[in-house]
Amino acid sequence: MRRILKLLVAAAVIGVAVGLWLTAPDRVAPERFASLSGDVAAGEKVFTASGCASCHHVPGAEDKLILAGGMAFPSDFGTFYAPNISPDPSAGIGDWKVIDLANAVMKGVSPKGQHYYPAFPYNAYNKMTDQDVADLFAYLQSLPADATPSKPHDVGFPFNIRRSLGGWKLLFFSDDYVMDVPADLERGRYLVEAQAHCAECHTPRNALGGLDTSRWMAGAPNPSGKGTIPALTPDKLTWSAEDVAYYLESGFTPEYDSVGGHMAEVVDNFAHLSAEDRAAVAAYVKALPAPKADTSGSSSY
Amino acid sequence: MKKSFATVAVLATLATTAMAEVPQAVKARQGQFNIMALNLGILGGMAKGQVEYNAEAAQAAADSLVAVSMIHQTALWPEGTDADSIEGTRALPAIWANIDDVVAKWGAFGEAAKAMQAAAGQGQDQIGPNMGAIGGSCKGCHDTYRAPQ
């Protein structure tokens, strides 16, 4: 009896140790960023393509470059609030080094070693090049500082245990691209999958909040309430590549309805990219395969 | 048996029709947006070069946009016609909670339409930039006040 108990205790200790090891935050090797220097102008392009301001600007504010956060993102797991990422040293990221930003966007890990919630799309940004992250850092540090403290997330048990996000990452974190593409679609794929993180809304999620990559861009319920986020897959989307590119530039659909919801913010970003980049995104979208049949029954995000 | 089944089916259809009856004010406001879309389509087709530029047709389309912008909106947006209260609309309740902002944004559309009116007859290359401005005014409202499909 005593021996069995001992064995059980030992097994539990090992189990916890393995669990902690598996869920421990992974970090970027600092050498990768030691010799990189960031360029502010190039960083602005990364910032625009990645849609940082679309979530981190103050809700309702005219100046979308004051990144004091506060926008609410309701989900099945609770409501997340975009944090302050302005260069204020205490409320924002003013005291960060480039490696801190790299760990945040490429690993989803804070400077103190906590996991970030995947409402922050690091599972897309982890595909960015190191140089793009260094440029982005330079640009972010050039923006106006704001001392408004970040609003705490409103997330209940057990999702409020940050360590459990290590398990989420084990299941879903991947810096491999989802779609295999020929060389001429690589730019579009980089914009869509690494920067603009289109799939975060356009792809349905499983019960644990991971993207269902077998139904990549097949449309999903609107995470913030009414309606659905439309499918971009060829079984649903009938627009031509030119239609997609014009929509991203002007916000007009082929029927001259106008963009709405959070996508209006996305169009604001794409309108500032080059015509070549919009065409590249459109080409990627038109190359998407039809999704596998929906077997999940519900895609409850 | 067959007959009663048919009666139930007919009644059910009638009931659904009655429930789906969209208030006239909602139809009217959606109608004005359709008039906008139709005329923007004429201008957009010319801007993109899909349709040959015609100064008169461009001017007429721009004039129509201005005409829509001059419709008084109060009667089109009665309380209780938001997407949470009725079917058949994507108008969010936030419209009624922020009416001053909505009115200002409607005014911005009017300004953009006037700029298009002044430019549309002056040449094909004048349309594109004004399309951008009008699109911006549409987005300005739709990003917060309209639900996705």
Automatic annotation (TrEMBL), chain A:
Entries under InterPro entries matching the protein: Cyt_c-like_dom, Cyt_c-like_dom_sf, Cytochrome_c-type_DH
Domain of life according to the entry: Bacteria
Record-annotated Cytochrome c domain positions: 38-144, 183-289
Pfam families: Cytochrom_C
Keywords for the protein's UniProt record, in alphabetical order: Heme, Iron, Metal-binding
Statement: the UniProt record of this protein carries the keyword Lipoprotein: no
GO molecular function terms listed in the Swiss-Prot or TrEMBL record: electron transfer activity; heme binding; metal ion binding
Listed name of the protein: Fructose dehydrogenase cytochrome subunit
Organism of this sequence: Pelagimonas phthalicica
UniProtKB/TrEMBL annotation, chain B:
Posttranslational modification: Binds 1 heme group per subunit.
Keywords carried by this UniProt record: Electron transport, Heme, Iron, Metal-binding, Signal, Transport
GO function terms (MF aspect): electron transfer activity; heme binding; iron ion binding
GO CC annotations on file: periplasmic space
Signal sequence coordinates: 1-20
Any one GO biological process: electron transport chain
Annotated SUPFAM superfamilies: Cytochromes
Binding-site list for heme c: C138, C141, H142
Pfam family, one: Cytochrom_C_2
Protein name: Cytochrome c
Organism: Pelagimonas phthalicica
The organism's taxonomic lineage, starting at the top: Bacteria, Pseudomonadati, Pseudomonadota, Alphaproteobacteria, Rhodobacterales
